[in-house]
Amino acid sequence: SIRVVNDDGTVVCETDDDTATAYTAGPGLTLSGTQFAVSFAGTGTAATAARSDHTQAWSSLTGVPAGFADGTDDTGTSYTAGTGITISGTTISANQTTVEGWARGVCYDTTAELRGVLDPVYAAAAHSHAWSTITSMPAGFADGVDNDTLYAAGSGLTLSGTTFSADTNYLQRRVTGTCPAGSSIRVIDTAGGVTCETDDVGSGGSYTAGAGISISGTTISVAANGIVSSMIADGTVTSDDTSLTSLTAQGSTSLVAGDNYFYGPTYTPSVNQTAVVISLVGIASSGTGWPEYTIWFRTAARVGGVNQLDLDLGFYLPAATGSGQWRTMTRSHTWSLTAGTSYQFGCFLGSVPSTAAGSSAWCHTTVIVL
Q1: How much is the pTM?
Q2: At residue 240, does pLDDT exceed 60?
């Protein structure tokens, strides 16, 4: 074997050292001494192994399936030619004569031949039927009488033949005419046309204010203080319009320290109104009285059960320096009344000191309802 390869490609050889390697026969081989041979299994003998392209006699085959073991090549399912079919050897074909006969049964060579078949069964497009030949006719037509519904012209209509029209002697047609500025419509004819005429007083008319009336531009109003008693007929003003009622709220009571309210009877207007409330209060002092700017006085109203005061401030009863001194004051206020709401009017004395508690107080209230 090669021991050394020189730079120039030459080699230096030496005798193989492995001269005593032992070999054994693998599967399919036998080893006898230094000779290997093919090992054959099963029955039969052979001096050599078979080649890949060798032949095999049929009789030497084993395990042949039953369908082949009889040595006969069965040709499989056999066929028989039916109507319109021919079989020649292994070729199956259509029978031309039979097929053409079938086609002739549904196809026609001429129009006359086709008409001869169709005319006895089907009617022509331009045909007619006698009334007596119609079947399943609705009962309304079976008697042969056309029962038309008859109509008559009512109010505002005319009937001419089968045509209804509006009666212009009864109905006014839509007005289509117009008049220019400064004129107005005087006549409208039956066709909706108009006849115009010049306005009698300017393009918009003019007005003059009479007694109790004020005119400003295009606005007409009742003049301030324009309605006087002479303009109101006697007996035409009811208690809902105006009333003069004197109500005494707790003619006499004893003051308590703090706030004190005095109310008269309940009044419930049926319409929205205005009430002018004039309240007079008087106090007879007890104890040591009260100093200046201590007890303040306002008109009061109980509206729907809730206490309310007028909005004017700064009214204080004069001071009382001892017991038995008489102090009075009058106030007025205008209230807006809502229909259906209950009202009680009277006096309010606020910030009463403990030194004035027990003083006798009177409240007289006059209510003028407008």
Answers
A1: 0.36
A2: no
